[in-house]
């Protein structure tokens, strides 16, 4: 834990506790934060910033940065390159400020280094790799094979290849300071085939040499060394070197664009190696469009720098020369001769195809189900439309019936209004005769006039009853009660009423041609009253002619089956009516 205070007081002299021994990566990550620790490592560089000396130290497990706050004159960095130091410090956090040394009293020089960066003894990498021994710091001479990501791949003069990470200086080189050890940066012109000298700290020597925090200087320019023939069944033995491999093409991935990477997967005796070729910037280059020249099953020879397989990635072969790929045979592999890798590819593709077919079948099944659901929905919609169309037709029919009934009512009211005139005329004529000639009329004529008044009044009452019938029709309460009807008597009665209503000016002759017995009608519906669509012209028909002859002559009435036919004729026109 941390204690924050504003005042402190020394009670008595004391001594530091025994430090906890730990590795540099553990201290760098803050695993022992807040504790007094002891670490040991080799100095790779040093820098002075704001009175604090920052040391970059490394060991076989990793690296860390140590900040020394009180550098005293008793300790010198004159022989600091590669010096092994033991440092007692406080682990105050993590990262570049994780380790803090209070003064140089807490620093012990275990082994001195050199005054010059490249003054370390020249190492025999082959002997070192054969013995499996390690060293704090190595100086080697080698030839650059390739640069990939943060690594430089080289072949040493003794033969073994190695991979080195670049030491990044704390800052650019400036004025010489005795408390600073700043390595030179990697030359910008460093290219494949250059002969260089490098100094660094080996991290491992098996299965290949891995050197950390290496500083470089160029000795001379040259060309790539001869590629060594490698056994594809054990590519780890030649990792990081310039090699020549034989393999059969498993698959190819063309470059997305000119100047990008094309890939070929090779089966090298059971091990998959992925060859990466930089497509030429123009389409005419010897490496352009390699996928169009090498097909699956071709046996080819590939030459390049082999990168190790790490973090789940396969071996990669960086092909950088025009002659880096060469076809050996174009024979497709037989089923028996297929490698396990090829079989895995075949099984994977088969499984993928089966999955795709199953997905297509499932999709088709879903489409069928969806189609069936849509068909059911469409049928329901059609039924609903049919029901709505039927309802609309019934509404239209009801509206038409209502309109017909309204027209019928209007016509009936018009007819009744017209028919009121006949009994009113009869009544007024009889009343006028009785008013003016009562004392001179014989008793029989008076009785006849009173009978006419009574009959006309009864007819008016019947007309009113028909108006009430119309009301019952509107209310839907109308019934039909037929009774026997004498058509001949009805016709004669109508003729007499017309004669009385016109004061004898329009006599009508009546003639029944056939047997009219057996007729039935409902008197409540007004059948016994004069009706017809030509009644509105009755006044004009009843006007006498100038010569005094009868203008109207009801000459005949016959009765075909189920109906009676009435013929009306006068001097101007005739009317036929069925009822």
Description:
This protein is α+β, with helices and mostly antiparallel strands and 579 residues long. The protein contains 7 helices and 24 strands. The strands form 5 sheets. A 5-stranded mixed beta barrel has the order 2-3-4-6-5. A 5-stranded mixed β-barrel has the order 8-9-10-12-11. Strands 14-15-16-18-17 form a 5-stranded mixed beta barrel. A hairpin with a 6-residue loop joins strand 22 and strand 23 (565-570). Helix 3 packs antiparallel against helix 5 (443-475) and helix 4 (421-437) crosses helix 6 (487-501).
Detail the topology: elements first, then pairings.
Layout lengths: L19 E2 L2 H5 L6 E15 L2 E7 L4 E6 L15 E8 L7 E3 L5 E5 L13 H7 L6 E11 L2 E6 L4 E6 L28 E10 L4 E12 L7 E2 L12 E12 L7 E8 L2 E8 L20 E9 L7 E5 L5 E5 L10 H80 L1 H17 L5 H33 L7 E3 L1 H15 L17 E3 L16 H4 L10 E7 L6 E6 L3 E5 L1
Parallel strand pairs: 1-2, 4-6, 10-12, 13-14, 16-18
Antiparallel strand pairs: 2-3, 2-5, 3-4, 5-6, 5-7, 8-9, 8-11, 9-10, 11-12, 14-15, 14-17, 15-16, 17-18, 17-19, 20-21, 22-23, 23-24
């Amino acid at each position: 834990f941390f204690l924050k205070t504003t005042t402190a007081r020394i009670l008595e002299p004391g001594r530091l506790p025994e430090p906890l021994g730990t590795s540099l990566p553990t201290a760098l990550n803050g695993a022992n934060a807040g504790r007094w620790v002891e670490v040991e490592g080799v100095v790779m560089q040093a820098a002075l910033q704001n009175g604090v000396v920052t040391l970059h130290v490394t060991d076989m497990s990793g690296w860390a940065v140590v900040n020394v706050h009180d550098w005293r004159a008793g300790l010198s960095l004159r022989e600091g390159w590669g010096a092994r130091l033991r440092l007692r410090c406080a682990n105050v956090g993590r990262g570049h400020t994780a380790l803090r040394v209070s003064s140089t009293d807490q620093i012990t020089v275990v082994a001195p280094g050199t005054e010059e960066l490249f003054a370390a003894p020249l190492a025999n990498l082959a002997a070192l790799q054969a013995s499996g021994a390690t060293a704090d710091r190595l100086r080697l001479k080698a030839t650059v094979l390739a640069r990939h990501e943060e690594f430089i791949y080289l072949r040493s003069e003794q033969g073994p290849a190695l991979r080195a990470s670049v030491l990044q200086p704390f800052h650019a080189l400036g004025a010489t300071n005795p408390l600073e050890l700043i390595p030179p940066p990697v030359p910008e012109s460093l290219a494949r085939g250059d002969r260089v000298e490098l100094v660094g700290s080996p991290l491992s020597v098996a299965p290949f040499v891995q050197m950390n925090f290496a500083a470089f200087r160029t000795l001379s320019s040259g060309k790539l060394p001869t590629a060594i023939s490698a056994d594809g069944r054990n590519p780890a033995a030649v990792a990081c070197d310039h090699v020549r491999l034989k393999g059969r093409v498993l698959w190819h991935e063309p470059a997305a664009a000119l100047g990008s990477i094309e890939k070929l997967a090779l089966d090298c005796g059971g091990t998959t190696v992925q060859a990466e070729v930089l497509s030429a910037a123009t389409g005419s280059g010897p490496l352009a469009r390699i996928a169009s020249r090498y097909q699956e099953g071709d046996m080819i020879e590939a030459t390049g720098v082999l990168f190790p397989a790490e973090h789940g990635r396969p071996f990669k072969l960086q092909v950088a020369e025009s002659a880096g790929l060469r076809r050996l045979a174009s024979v497709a592999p037989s089923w028996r001769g297929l490698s396990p890798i090829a079989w895995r590819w075949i099984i994977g593709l088969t499984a993928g195809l089966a999955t795709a077919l199953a997905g297509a079948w499932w999709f088709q099944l879903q489409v069928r189900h969806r189609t069936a659901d849509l068909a059911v929905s469409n049928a329901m919609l059609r039924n609903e439309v049919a029901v709505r169309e039927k309802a609309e037709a019934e509404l239209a029919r009801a509206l038409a019936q209502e309109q017909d009934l309204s027209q019928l009512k209007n016509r009936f009211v018009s007819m009744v209004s017209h028919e009121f005139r006949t009994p009113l005329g009869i009544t007024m004529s009889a009343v006028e005769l009785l008013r003016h000639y009562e004392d001179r009329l014989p008793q029989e004529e008076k009785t006849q006039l009173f009978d006419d008044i009574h009959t006309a009044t009864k007819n008016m009452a019947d007309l009113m009853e028909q108006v009430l019938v119309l009301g019952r029709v509107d209310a839907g309460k109308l019934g039909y009660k037929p009774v026997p009807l004498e058509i001949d008597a009805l016709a004669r009665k109508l003729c007499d009423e017309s004669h009385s209503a016109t004061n004898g000016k329009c006599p009508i002759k009546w003639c029944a041609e056939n047997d009219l017995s057996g007729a039935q009608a409902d008197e409540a519906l007004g059948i016994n009253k004069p009706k017809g669509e030509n009644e509105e012209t009755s006044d004009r028909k009843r006007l006498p002619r100038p010569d005094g002859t009868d203008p109207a002559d009801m000459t005949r009435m016959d009765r075909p089956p189920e109906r009676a036919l009435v013929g009306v004729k006068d001097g101007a026109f005739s009317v036929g009516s069925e009822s």
